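Two folds, back to back.
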Amino acid sequence: MLPEEAHEALCRVFCERASVAAVPVGLAVSTGFLLPDGDPLTFYVVETADGIVLEDDGDFFATAVASGLPIESGTRAQLLAGILRQEGAYLDRDTCQIRSEPVTAADFGRAAARFVSALIRARDLHLLTQEHIASTFAEDVRAEAERRLGDRFRIEDEEHADLPADFVVTSVQTGRRAAIVYAATSNERMLTALVRHMGREKDDAPVFAVVERIGGGSVSNRTMEVAVNRGLRTPVFGSDPEGAMAFLLREIKEAAVA
């Protein structure tokens, strides 16, 4: 097949399956990409005082939240924001709609291609594995601890442990281990931290299980109750990551001088 033939075939397929119709808000564009429910991926073109804005109908985000997908906060929320930002779009939380930044008529075609890419990539968050989420959350907690603790503490991987934590914190001044930190993104990881906590000796560093969220496929209420009732320190990010990090850092500093 010649390049010209391939180009013609591709243009024909994409154009034949796309349609544009006038609607009250502006234009409705139906693409050739099919969603899992069989409906075509559709977006709207709205002319504003700042330029042309592309937007979806808000169903994706609203349905994801209603179905229990943890997309409002935590790792998936950060990934969604990153995906949209790369494609020149953002999430309007007031309307649950994904919108593009305003563009000119001359840039409409390129902006439309990027916007369709954003809508497709956003839906891939449904497929994000728990292992990926766990790894990303652990990295985020570690990076934030490193930033806030500065050079007074050393943060390292834990080696030669039967139940290795995601990282350990050691005081540079005293050489004393101040914290053993697990990123608890699942019941299994929370129970691992609990076993470590219950088996620690009197002079061992305290064990922390930093929780991304409770319920919705993460740590269950029952597991959380068991951990808390047995004295495991469990700062919860949820909707208050600042409070969770403040608790973690305060406890680390106290343990370093205890």
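---
second:
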Amino acid sequence: MKRTLFITIITLLPCTGLQAQRTLQIKAIPGQLAEQLTEEQMATVEELTLTGELCNSDFAALRSMESLRVLDMTDAQVDTIPGYGLADTDIEKISLPKALEVIESYAFSSSFHLENLHWNTFPVKIEDHAFKDSYLLSFTASGDELAILNDALYTADLKTLLLFPVENRAKDGVYTVAEGTDKIGEKAFMDCFWIYKVILPTSLGTIEDKSFWIKPSAPTNGSGSMYLLGHVTCQSTTPPVCLGDPFGIFLENAVTPQLTIPPGCEDAYKNDPYWWKFFYPTIGGSKLAELHKSPCRIQIKGSSLIVENAGTCRLCIYDIAGRCVTDCRVENNITVENLPAGMFIYRLQGSNIAENRKFIIE
């Protein structure tokens, strides 16, 4: 009788006593995050929810978590994302803290896997190039203060465009700012390399400093830098107020974008204290005084702004948040009284004058 012998071979693997952990919630102690996590957790946690407080060294610990893909800091007591704090990571989704006030330069730079940022509030300050060279594709938002429109982050009333994801390519590199938008915030499109043309709505009243400082690239002469926004279409018959240098056109070696405006508006844009540069790109900023000589005299007395010898022009006064507090027609002289204390920007625009300056009511 023939018998068949079956032999089972069991391979015994060494047991480490540690089990991979994929999700984790932890209350951080400032400066001790690396010690709070085991070596196994540092290597295997994919989704991390943080509460408590963080300091700079804790962000270094987060950067070293090689498997981390989802980071939720919604309820963490973090008011600042430090420079390079979450740079060069493999994290794909981040929910930002409700307590956030500042995002420092290069905080998310070179984060090639970052797909989404969730905003619970908008910080008071975002420094230059905070998202430079990241692959940030989209935003989401929650709460009563923020909204998403046409892929951009807005205030809840949809009046102010706050920020646009740097890696969002729009359609064919053309982005149309939604009608109804009154203001484009500071650095809103900074480093958005894929945006080549922007179309601005008739409703737009203010564009803040560095809004369209698109990703810099070495110019043909090999020195300095330029900003590669190629075309601006402004649909408003009245030039939007520009605070600072929204398009980077006064930078050394800057390339001035092509400008398209409504028919019959060329004089208004040429006489504007900022938009004139689009028509005279090779003229230095000092030429502005020569282009717009005026006998106009402007004084600040108490809580009043006094304008004399301005001819026929339009006067707009904006508070530091970009809100228009006065918009009126001037026939040579005008006095605007009872302005509250604070910093303002007045803008005078007419055939013989174009001025745009800050002033303070004490």
